[in-house]
Amino acid sequence: MCVDKSHAQRLTPTALAFLGDAAYALYVRMRLVENSDDVCGTLHVKATKYVNAKAQAAAFDALDADGVFTDEERDIARRAKNAHLHAHTKAATVADYHKATALEAVIGYSEAIGDVARRDELLSMCCAAIE
């Protein structure tokens, strides 16, 4: 997907998070497959270490503390954290879920505008923060 920045900025935070969730999960799965000969079930278990609200919230906190996000990305994250979310999870706190959504929205924004280098940079930093 590649839309202009003004169009991407008009997308709802949850739409950006929806896109970012897919990009994040695919990145993790590709990384695991590239570095492992494990069977599908084992790969899935390994992927869940990275692809869950608690881990994504921790990655968001780490990237935010390091000042990684641009002003534009911080604005997207802020809007996503404040979005009214309908999903509930027992595995993470509401605060963690909102941070994970913010992270996914930032990644989704990079994906939407076609900034693959920035998307991959953010995803690499996320994985490093979780490891």
Task: Characterize the structure shown.
By secondary structure, the protein is mostly helical. The chain has a single domain (5-130), classed as Ribonuclease III domain (Ribonuclease iii, N-terminal Endonuclease Domain, Chain A, Orthogonal Bundle). Helices cover 73% and strands 0% of the residues. It contains seven helices and no strands. The longest helix has 22 residues, at 13-34. The radius of gyration is 14 Å and the shape is globular.
Number of helices: 7
Integer-rounded radius of gyration: 14 Å
Calculate the mean pLDDT score and round it.
92
In CATH, the topology is named Ribonuclease iii, N-terminal Endonuclease Domain, Chain A
What is the subunit arrangement here? single chain
CATH superfamily: Ribonuclease III domain
**Poorly predicted ranges (pLDDT <50, ≥5 residues)?**
none
The fraction of residues in strands falls at: under 5%
**Structural class per helix/strand content?**
mainly alpha
What is the straight-line distance between the termini? Answer: 29 Å
Give the secondary structure arrangement, pairings included.
Elements (H helix, E strand, L loop, with lengths): L4 H6 L2 H22 L5 H9 L4 H13 L5 H11 L12 H19 L3 H15 L1
Helix pairs in contact: 2-3, 2-6, 4-6, 4-7, 5-6, 6-7
Describe the structure concisely:
The protein has 131 residues and is mainly alpha-helical. The chain has helices spanning 5-10, 13-34, 40-48, 53-65, 71-81, 94-112, 116-130. The longest helix has 22 residues, at 13-34.
